[in-house]
Amino acid sequence: MKRTIIVVLLVTAVVCVTSGQTTKPNISGAWERVAISGAGNPGAETMTFFHNEPYVYLLYRIKDGAGERTLDLKGIIDGKPHTQEIEGRPATLTVQWEGQNLILDIKREASFGYSHTRRKMMFSADGKAMTTERTWYTKEGALRKETGAEKWQRK
Asked: Would you say 87 and 98 are in contact if contact means Cβ atoms under 8 Å apart?
């Protein structure tokens, strides 16, 4: 009888632990920004992710009044800065999960000056939509007053 109780308790514990673990969404694919509110770039933006947890590769295409540009970024989803170059200038990509939300942090020297943007990306249950909270920072790390929200759809 004691043995049966112990087996039942062990099985219950294993089921509780494994059912409490959540898998992260696979964000692979092209995402097109369809709406923006607050501060932000009014141009067209597309992010194409190649995601194989914990690795991520991002092609971020921007088309606006300053022209067309592509940010080509790669890193590991580990919350650590990954140094690289964009358009021959220094850049850092930091990516981490915050629950089911992905935090994407890009710091770079751009042709127009320093840029530091952080997005908190929240994915719909069906994986077809994403909303983001976008925040800008100064080179010194201070929060700039501009913030914005975006809606994206998987193409």
From this structure: no
Domain ranges of the chain: 25-154
Q: What are the pLDDT digits (tens) for 91-143?
A: 999 999 999 999 999 999 988 889 999 999 999 999 999 999 999 998 998 88
Distances (CA, A) of 50 to 30, 72, 90, 112: 9, 11, 22, 28
Domain 25-154 superfamily per CATH: Calycin beta-barrel core domain (2.40.128.20)
Question: For residue 119, with 0-12 CB atoms within 10 Å meaning exposed, 13-18 middle and 19 or more buried, which class applies?
Answer: buried
Q: Strand, coil or helix: what is 8? A: helix
